Structure to design on (512 residues):
DNA sequence: TTCCGACAGTGGGGTCGCAAT
DNA sequence: ATTGCGACCCCACTATCGGAA
């Protein structure tokens, strides 16, 4: 199959907003693909490269290359050349990769170049990623879409399932079962604004402490242990403590879900930055492990002794977990039977925060483990802080925000009467707010910078954030974590905005 | 007919590690 | 040695479609 066909379909998919039409277009293309094209066509149309990482980014791709007049590239040829490109490493490799990319781009038409660029940078923006591709695949093969989706979650990969399905038909789905050693996409949580709201929605539930670490899925098969992240990357070699911990547990074949986190000598959690730095260290793991030892804290069991627990209610999965994992290696929790237990749940949240954790996750007791989905049966509750800050500049948006000033630079007042930038945000604004702020900020503009505008520091905005963290990038030495706009405060003057001093006083645990 | 779950899009900061300077 | 870049951790929120209620 020619690449140009994919580029055309991708453009058509992007042009329609109806999800049903997107699915129909993808299904038609999947049906036309030859068996050998399948492992390439499916991920390409889901907006992803089968190679994952290439070591090529914007810097290399932003160099313009004259396009070819007529299409000639086939999808298989493109895939083969990208695979080769990904293997190039060593001195001079960056230049060599850039050369190979340029060569490939030179053989592509303008339309194909756009499509390849989107694929490599992960920004296809056609309004259809894995989930829509799964529907298209189901339509193309006549397999029920829930079954296809489940197989993808269990395989942890769309293209594996696609190839099996298009080669052997719907019966191939039976092959995808939960297997020790093969990671499953983890279940995710929604957000609730309070414990009251969460318990109101879920009824009988477990309230569990939420640790600010790295999500891990631990597989043990006898003496062999493998550890996977949320995106199913294998990080076993970076966490020798976890392998030892898993080998000490009573079972010999299991899959557990949990969090890995670093504690200090007093048992309080260390900052997320410290845990993440440790888990990210790959070169000298032994030294990193001595400096920042980490511990696993489990909260779910997906498989024990070859028994698939995914469809069991949480109560039963947790009973299996408790049988296998002793107390300190399990997340603390309180079980409540409904709104009448609210005081106990509130008390548990308060204690959890005092112990230095992020918040709680409220989980329905009868819900199954919905792999890969942001199911409504897990609700996280975290305290939210707010500040009144002043807008210092704004950047032009991309995609559907093209032409709108989108990303705001936020400043707090300093002792000398000026403003110190604390970070940026593009979150929380409605389309109406985007339109309004674009006009308002243009009025306040003092300089057009190309990427946006700098403005007179007069517009006050209320910002919600999850906490402070240390920063080497911003002048106050701190930055806001997950800042988002709550509302504009036109009733406030910039002199009434919050100061760096009060911000630091509110977070004594963070020393810039 | 209205409501709501699922999805895609729009990007944020930090850290590590490799390659280039 | 330092800097730039890519990959991968953490993540919030809004708009929209289309099936459920």
């Amino acid at each position: 199959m020619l690449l140009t066909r994919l580029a055309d379909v991708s453009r058509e998919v992007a042009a329609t907003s109806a999800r049903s039409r997107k699915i129909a277009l993808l299904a038609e293309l999947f049906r036309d693909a030859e068996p050998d094209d399948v492992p390439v066509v499916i991920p390409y149309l889901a907006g992803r490269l089968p190679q994952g990482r290439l070591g090529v980014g914007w810097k290399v791709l932003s160099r313009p290359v004259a396009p070819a007049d007529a299409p000639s590239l086939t999808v298989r040829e493109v895939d083969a050349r990208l695979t080769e490109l990904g293997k190039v490493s060593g001195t001079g490799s960056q230049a060599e990769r850039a050369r190979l990319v340029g060569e490939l781009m030179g053989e592509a038409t303008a339309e194909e170049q756009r499509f390849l660029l989107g694929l490599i940078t992960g920004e296809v923006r056609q309004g259809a990623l894995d989930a829509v591709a799964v529907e298209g695949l189901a339509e193309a093969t006549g397999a029920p879409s829930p079954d296809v989706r489940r197989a993808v979650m269990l395989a942890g990969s769309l293209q594996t399932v696609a190839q099996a399905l298009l080669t052997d038909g719907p019966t191939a789905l039976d092959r995808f079962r939960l297997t020790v050693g093969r990671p499953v996409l983890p279940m995710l949580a929604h957000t609730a604004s309070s414990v009251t709201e969460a318990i109101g929605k879920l009824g009988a539930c477990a309230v569990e402490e939420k640790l600010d670490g790295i999500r891990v899925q631990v597989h043990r098969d006898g003496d062999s242990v493998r550890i996977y992240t949320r995106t199913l990357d294998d990080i076993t070699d970076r966490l020798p403590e976890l392998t030892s911990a898993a080998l000490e547990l009573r079972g010999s074949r299991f899959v557990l879900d949990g969090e890995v986190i670093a504690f200090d000598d007093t048992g309080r959690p260390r900052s997320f930055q410290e845990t993440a730095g440790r888990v990210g260290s790959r070169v000298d793991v032994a030294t990193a492990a001595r400096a920042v030892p980490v511990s696993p804290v489990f909260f779910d069991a997906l498989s024990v002794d070859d028994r698939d627990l995914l469809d069991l209610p949480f109560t039963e999965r947790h009973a299996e977990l408790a049988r296998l994992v002793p107390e300190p290696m399990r997340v603390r929790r309180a079980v409540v039977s409904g709104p009448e237990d609210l005081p106990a749940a509130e008390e548990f949240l308060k204690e959890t925060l005092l112990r230095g954790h992020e918040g709680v996750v409220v989980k329905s007791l009868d819900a199954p483990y919905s792999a890969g989905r942001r199911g409504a049966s897990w609700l996280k509750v975290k305290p939210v802080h707010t500040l009144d800050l002043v807008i210092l500049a704004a950047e032009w948006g991309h995609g559907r925000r093209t032409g709108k000033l989108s990303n705001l630079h936020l400043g707090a007042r300093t002792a000398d009467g000026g403003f110190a930038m604390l970070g940026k945000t593009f979150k929380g604004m409605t389309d109406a707010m985007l339109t309004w702020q674009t006009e308002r900020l243009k009025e306040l503009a003092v300089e057009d910078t190309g990427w946006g505008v700098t403005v007179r520091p007069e517009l006050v905005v209320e910002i919600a954030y999850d906490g402070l963290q240390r920063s080497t990038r911003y002048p106050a030495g701190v930055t806001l974590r997950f800042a988002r706009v709550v509302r504009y405060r036109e009733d406030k003057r910039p002199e009434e905005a919050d100061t760096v001093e009060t911000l630091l006083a509110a977070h004594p645990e963070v020393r810039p």
Notes: The CA atoms of residues 1 and 221 of chain A lie 42 Å apart. Chain A has 18 helices and 19 strands. The longest strand of chain A covers residues 385-396. Chain A has a mean pLDDT of 92.
